[in-house]
Structures
1.
Amino acid sequence: MNDTEKKKNLDSSKRSSSSYHFSETVVRNIILLTIIIVFSIYVQIQNDNFLTLNSIGVIGLNISFIGIAAIGTALLMIGGQIDLSIGSIFAFAAVISGLMASLIDPQLAIVVGVLSGGMIGLINGLIVWRISISPIIVTLGALTFVRGLVLIITDDKSVTGIPENFTILGRTVVLGLPLPVIIFLVIGVLAGLILSFTRVGLRIRAFGDNKAGAELSGLSGRNLTLGLFFFSGLVSGLAGVLATSRLGGASPNFGIGFELEVITAVVLGGVAITGGEGRITGVALSVVLLGVVKSGITALGLDPNIGRLIVGGALIGAVALNQLGVERHNRSRRKQAMAEFAADGGVADRLGLTKSANRDGD
């Protein structure tokens, strides 16, 4: 086998792998979209107020906070990391921005709240990178630490008396859409473009797929880790600030269970828990699906706790399917590698391990 043939086989292998992931993503997105449509129609038949403009607006607002945080978490997980403290970051940014709004200019309070989330994310990233500890352990500790900080700052009381100027961000409607929904869409589109069409996106995938290999090729693990953690904390903080602005107050219990919903949406949307694979479109669809299902349960008059069962079950199912897909893909790659190894002119042939080589030796 000459060098030209080897290059063709390598290119064919790459195209095959890319086609595999693309087709799997398309199928997943079609399934998610189909479930959203079918479930919505069913609930509408049972309750004709479910798909009214007002109801859709409420659903959109509810999913926007989770969706904004899910974009940051998706990029972080594609890069091979995870942050379990995003619920506490959400609460911290919400409380800080609410308290600061009564002391300084409301616009500046918004900036302070969002940046406070980014700083916590950056600290998480520094610890993960510098000490080389599992991000699960680091961010699990941060989840408890930051939640305790929130309770101390607020004295376990809700933040109220927020100026009206501060509530404009969360209550503004543009072209019939609440501003938080528009922010979710804009961040989602930008993240999708960066992930799919820029070097930064390529580096995120490469680092998540093979950290050691990416670092050997010259990628800075430090910069990428810090950047991803900072962005995840930043958008989680933004979601918290938007929630405070929308509601006109903040509770120290904000964000409890938030990280579970966000991570469920991300994994259900096709982001590999092992890193290196995932697309924003799937994440956005899964965010919508979970929001529609939770709202549909309420519209049907069922126990709201059923929503918890669905979220937990969806996470377990998504992780199981993800792992089965990884195992299937790995088997396919091993089979292809063995075929190339044993092919005429391949490594086995050159080492004299094939039947043709044995016949020539005879």
2.
Amino acid sequence: MHVQIAQHVELHTRASRRGASGRGFTLLELMTAIAVASILAAISIPMYTSFVRNQRVKTAAYDLSYALTLARGEALKRNSSVTVSPDTNGWKFGWSVATTVGPVTLFTNATPTYLDASNAAVSYLTITPATGNVVTYNGSGRLTSAVTSFTIASAVGSTTQIPPRCVTVDLSGLPRNTASTSGSCP
């Protein structure tokens, strides 16, 4: 009986040693896994980069639409002119919504009183207004000048990969944000 227990323990010990050595990876398996991971990374990184650039264009377009909507709402609320103007370095470096009349001050930068300011220095974008360099809403929420539109595009990559966005302000003063199908905005 004592011999049987010793044999059983020896068999169990050998089996557990074999299992312990069989739990690791062989060099071939490790190299295969690394090769598969490298191929997947090589395929996904350009797609991810394009996705990020596209999202930056969309975000800038939605931010500009928001600023125009805010300006229109403030012009209606205050019954006075409100302007959306670019940063001193251009639209791609931000814009401000301002009025020279009104009791609410959210951000002050000498004159005029800034209601909202977007200072996202985005060197990877181009933001081009079709007409004029300032959008002004009168007290009735309508534009004081002709209908305007903005083309927001990625400064990197082609327009087939990353289509530009169009922010168009109609006659009533409402901004509309759409993707461009032709590569430019009306």
3.
Amino acid sequence: MGCDQIEVEDFKVVRQLDKKRTSIYRSFLLRSSNDDNEYVYKSVNITALKKKEKDAMLNEINVLKKLSHANIIEIKNDYYSKDNKFLNIITEYAEEGTLQNKYEEQKKKKEYFDENELLDWFIQILLALKYIHEKNILHRDINPSNIFLMKDMAKLGNFGVAKALSPELNYAKTLVTTPQYLAPEVKEKEKYTCQADIWALGVTFYQLIILDYPFEGSLEEIQTNIEKGNKKPIPKDCKIDKKFIKIINEMMIVDPEKRITLEKILEDSIIKSRIECYLIQQKFNKLEAKKTIRAFEDEEKGRKKKVPIVQEEEKETEVNETEEQKEKKEKEIQERKEKKANYDKCRHMSALIEMVNIKI
């Protein structure tokens, strides 16, 4: 497949997502002909990549294939072009963008985020981290740009630099993450563990709370402030629960051995009470959730094709389609989207109960 050609069956191209068309990389928003859900299609000329770049991309695919969680971006398909020059990936599409987008919007408006909204995102990404850490996988690049937002759902994505840890060693050494979110032990090129992800998530949410990056100054000053843990103070007009701020501060303790662990965060009363309140609001029923999850996954299996091929969306409308047929199709599309949203919510809430062992 050439970069000027898209060959994916059962999908139509809605629009190009990347700003520039290059001979190496393109990404498109696709719409499935089967269920009308939208997906991201990435096509990369692997013959033009350096070995390190190619390895990172293949690593992301291999990691994502092993993961199945409501709060992690799911890979739908991956395959090589017929000439083996292009690697194509189809993943879930986050229609509401990233936390970085939300952060920039709020900063421009000079309005702090609502605490409940922050807590919901925080808990959902904790769920994702708990899941990957239990599989001995470090994300290693947690920041607002790699947290994606869908309807009522936050999802962790971009696992290109994820690292699978050996159970015997349980640490990593390679320095690969976004510099502003590097834990002090990573900057010092020391051995590091899952606690480096905890630091990065703490930095991310401190940034969202104060609407600014926690460490200021030149690059050298920022590094010094990170090493000493010198953060900007929480503004007085920022109305965020002190218990939540305490958790975030403990996630940014310089010494990884003194830094709060994921397990301790989950035991905190503000986290448990927020989850309990959410579950009560949803009137969650575990048995009904299991049925919903099973039914949706069985339906998905029936829809899957061997290898997708994408076709450009036709500009002209189908003249033979009646208004009644259009209405029926739109209704089916809406029902399908609602099923997917309900499926994600059921998986998420099931994981919440398991995470904090709340009896419902």
4.
Amino acid sequence: MMHERPESETLLLSEARIGVPYRVVRISAQGVIRQRMLDMGLVPGVRLMVVRFAPLGDPIEIRINRFFMSLRKEEAGHIHIEPAGHCHAHHRGHGRFGRFFYGR
């Protein structure tokens, strides 16, 4: 069972820092945009990392598992995240298949 943090303790993906592991808490987008995010793997509980921001801050490149995705800043503003540094389910180097992508 996953427990969500109160809204005030989460931040938006558009506010994330580069190189910090995060966990998706919830997605507040609606309709086609929400479905597209879910189809691409942006689901509650998934871990991700911001790779870089474009020079003007839009789009944002993120890494989920072993693939890279670019999101518009407006889309990233619908993804609520929390730092995933000390998640009990995964530890650096002990993810699925004995590896986890952070720090590799």
